[in-house]
């Protein structure tokens, strides 16, 4: 049953972009509470029974029911890129379909911008899907007999918008995703990467509250895939949309996610920012899964700093924010004569780092040892 873990291969992590701050005061764009999906004939009857305490394998052996999603709760902040990551069969696709009620939850609630999707009738749900949520799929889902511009405008047409405004909006989206000049092409005249740009433009055209991506780049070549990841980061900076991104690829998750939810066997193993996942893995599974990530590309100074030895330690050197990624801090720290101060968002000194603190991360990385595992 054990699956081989995907090992780290890509070395050019781009975690240098600004992370969306989590505003505690703002209400969630998406709020999921106690969500379950059990596949099988009597799934509803199992809710509240001890059978749901069983492992996926035990329950399947006992009654033939399969737990797709197990008691999942999380909140996505407005403007956040929230990545759901897990290996094949961990429940990612089921989760994203539950969130839009493309499949019915066995238990739990989903609030989208405060609206309870789980309490809605079909008509209301359709309206939400037309106006509030857009999906980008792995296999594009484009209409083959429609030109690029008409594919992008399709959702607006379904909503009943007039031709003039919908053409205008579609053209804006064409320009936004870099497809100017291809408006009159048909999907099969475009490369996979360009088709996925059409998918992105179509999803953005309706100005949804939340954009959902279900493994959108899995079918693309690695180089195109990397371009598309950069494109998502760029678009996110431009339009600032709330995004929920499903992937089985840790590299992709770390590049894109403000926070990452790691799933296994339908349940949450850990939710955290990339540096939290790497700096404080919740268990051996996550530790093993992330073992080959280049730590200096993900960990921030917060994870490597130490208490100042005295009040004026590092006073002469420029201060660095505690959110600076180690790799980017390295030059400044190594160039300084002594320790460098680390400050939080309010400018308060929260620690110091020196050459050794930086090199420890880099050397551990090169030797493949794990910080905190007792290796020296
Ligand atoms: N309609 C269904 N009936 C029975 N079991 C299902 C059904 N859909 C999914 N499952 C099971 O639920 C579990 C989670 O599947 P899901 O497709 O959500 O995983 P995933 O992480 O998206 O995997 P992949 O990346 O391979 O799509 C799996 O054990 C799967 O076999």
UniProtKB/TrEMBL annotation:
SUPFAM superfamilies: P-loop containing nucleoside triphosphate hydrolases. NCBIfam families: proV. Belongs to the ABC transporter superfamily. It comes from the Bacteria. The keyword Nucleotide-binding applies. Residues 54-290 form the ABC transporter domain. This is Glycine betaine/L-proline ABC transporter ATP-binding protein. Keywords: ATP-binding, Nucleotide-binding, Transport. GO terms for molecular function: ATP binding. InterPro entries: AAA+_ATPase, ABC_osmolyte_uptake_ATP-bind, ABC_transporter-like_ATP-bd, ABC_transporter-like_CS, Gly-betaine_transp_ATP-bd, P-loop_NTPase. Gene3D superfamilies: P-loop containing nucleotide triphosphate hydrolases. It holds the Pfam family ABC_tran.
């Amino acid at each position: 049953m054990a699956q081989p873990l995907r090992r780290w291969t890509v070395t050019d992590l781009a975690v240098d972009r600004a992370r969306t701050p989590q505003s505690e005061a703002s209400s969630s764009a998406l709020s999921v509470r106690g969500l379950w999906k059990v596949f099988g004939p009597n799934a509803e009857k199992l809710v509240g029974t001890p059978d749901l305490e069983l492992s996926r394998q035990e329950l399947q052996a006992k009654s033939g029911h399969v737990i797709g999603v197990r008691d999942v709760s999380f909140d996505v902040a407005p403007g956040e890129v929230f990545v759901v990551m897990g290996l094949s069969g961990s429940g990612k696709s089921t989760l994203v379909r539950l969130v839009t009620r493309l499949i019915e939850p066995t238990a739990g609630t989903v609030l989208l911008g405060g609206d309870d999707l789980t309490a809605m009738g079909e008509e209301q749900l359709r309206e939400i899907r037309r106006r509030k949520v857009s999906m980008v799929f792995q296999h594009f889902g484009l209409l083959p007999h429609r030109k690029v511009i008409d594919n992008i405008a399709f959702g607006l047409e379904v909503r009943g918008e007039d031709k003039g405004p919908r053409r205008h909006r579609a053209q804006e989206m064409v320009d936004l995703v870099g497809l100017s000049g291809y408006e009159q092409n048909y999907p099969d005249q475009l490369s996979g990467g360009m088709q996925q740009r059409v998918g992105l433009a179509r999803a953005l055209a309706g100005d949804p509250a939340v954009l959902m991506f279900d493994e959108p780049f899995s079918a693309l070549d690695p180089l195109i895939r990397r371009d598309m990841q950069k494109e998502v980061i760029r678009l996110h900076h431009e339009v600032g949309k709330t995004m929920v991104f499903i992937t089985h690829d840790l590299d992709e998750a770390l590049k894109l996610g403000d926070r990452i939810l790691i799933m296994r066997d339908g349940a949450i193993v850990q939710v955290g920012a990339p540096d939290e996942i790497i700096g404080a893995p919740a268990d051996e599974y996550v530790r093993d899964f992330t073992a080959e990530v280049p730590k200096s590309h993900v960990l921030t100074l917060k994870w490597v700093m130490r208490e100042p030895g005295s009040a004026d330690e590092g006073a002469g050197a420029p201060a660095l924010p505690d959110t600076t990624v180690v790799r980017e801090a390295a030059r400044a720290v190594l160039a300084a004569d002594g320790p460098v101060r680390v400050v939080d968002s309010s400018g308060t000194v929260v620690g110091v780092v020196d050459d050794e603190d930086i090199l420890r991360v880099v050397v551990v990385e090169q030797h493949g040892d794990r910080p905190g595992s007792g290796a020296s």
